[in-house]
From TrEMBL:
Pfam families found in the cross-reference section: Glycos_transf_2 (PF00535)
GO terms assigned for molecular function: glycosyltransferase activity
Family: Belongs to the glycosyltransferase 2 family.
Domain of life: Bacteria
SUPFAM superfamilies: Nucleotide-diphospho-sugar transferases
Matches recorded under PANTHER family: GALACTOFURANOSYLTRANSFERASE GLFT2, RHAMNOSYLTRANSFERASE WBBL
Source species taxonomy: Bacteria, Bacillati, Bacillota, Bacilli, Bacillales
Organism annotation: Paenibacillus terreus
EC number: 2.4.-.-
Protein name: Glycosyltransferase family 2 protein
Domain annotation Glycosyltransferase 2-like: ranges: 5-168
């Protein structure tokens, strides 16, 4: 029996997490478990998480960041498939079934993701007319019909929703925790997957709603987010020897395929990040 382990990090915003979880139970038609990793919430999030069926809760006493939290969840997971899912998302009918179908359509596919809102342009759609549950579900249904089975190979995938086989972890390891608290760990994971001979895939027929930066709302938090993003851009630049400044990488972008082309030999000591 196929089991998908959904790894979800939380840090406050109970209502946001509840909306995401409600959509999972409403719209998921394959066996799943949820591994919550709570990064030191100060509201009632941890209390709520313990009421969710099919769930295991890992409570951190400090905010360990996205990569470390995901690695904790991965180590606790039981499924043959791992799905990293942000808590500021709303999933839609048949989402996970179609992602699994996309992943298994080609054994060379290492990671798949959906299209969404409030994400980088490679996976972003711009014609959603409203943000109510009814609007989201209706738009997802329209895309399912219009883009059935369609998708494309991106340079990288965005970490708000990524599905992969557990066997990928045996090949390249987990997320790189140097990218604390978040940003560029998904870029890094995508590059290592491709360096190991895998392709990436965006499923055009699968839409989920993404609110975006749920833990970084407000002007002060936005400034903090930007500074942390630039710091991780520098770490990313140092790791992959990119001939751009951190500012250029973070604000103007870079070409992941150029990095993959340079990494033409898979080296475990360079491309594997062992799970702690």
């Amino acid at each position: 029996m196929v089991l998908v382990s959904i790894i979800m990090l939380t840090h406050n915003k109970t209502d946001m997490t509840r909306r995401c979880v409600d959509s999972i139970f409403r719209h998921t038609d394959v066996p799943f478990e949820i591994i919550f990793v709570d990064n030191a919430s100060t509201d009632d999030t941890a209390v709520y998480l313990k009421t969710v069926p099919k769930a295991r809760v890992i409570e951190n006493k400090e905010n360990r960041g996205f990569a470390a939290g995901c690695n904790q969840g991965i180590k606790a997971a039981s499924g043959d498939y791992i799905l990293l899912l942000n808590n500021d998302t709303v999933v839609t009918a048949g989402w996970l079934c179609r992602l699994l179908k996309s992943l298994n359509a080609d054994p060379r596919r290492g990671i798949v993701g959906p299209v969404s809102t409030n994400v980088a342009p490679i996976q972003c759609v711009y014609d959603l007319k409203g943000t109510s549950i009814e609007d989201i579900d209706s738009y997802a249904h329209e895309r399912k019909l219009a883009f059935a089975g369609q998708g494309f190979f991106p340079h990288k995938l965005i970490g708000f929703c990524m599905l992969f086989r557990r066997s990928l972890l045996d090949l390249i390891g987990g997320l790189d925790e140097r990218f604390y608290p978040g940003n560029y760990e998904d870029d890094d994971f995508s590059i290592r997957a491709r360096a190991a001979g895998n392709t990436l895939w965006v499923a055009q027929d699968t839409f989920i709603y993404h609110e975006g930066q749920g833990s970084f709302s407000g002007t002060a938090r936005t400034r903090e987010y930007r500074l942390q993003s630039l710091e991780n851009a520098q770490r990313f630049r140092d790791k992959w020897n990119i001939g751009l400044s951190a500012f250029e990488i973070d604000l103007r972008g870079y070409n992941p395929s150029e990095i993959v082309a340079k990494e033409n030999v898979f080296l475990p000591e360079r491309h594997v990040v062992p799970l702690p």
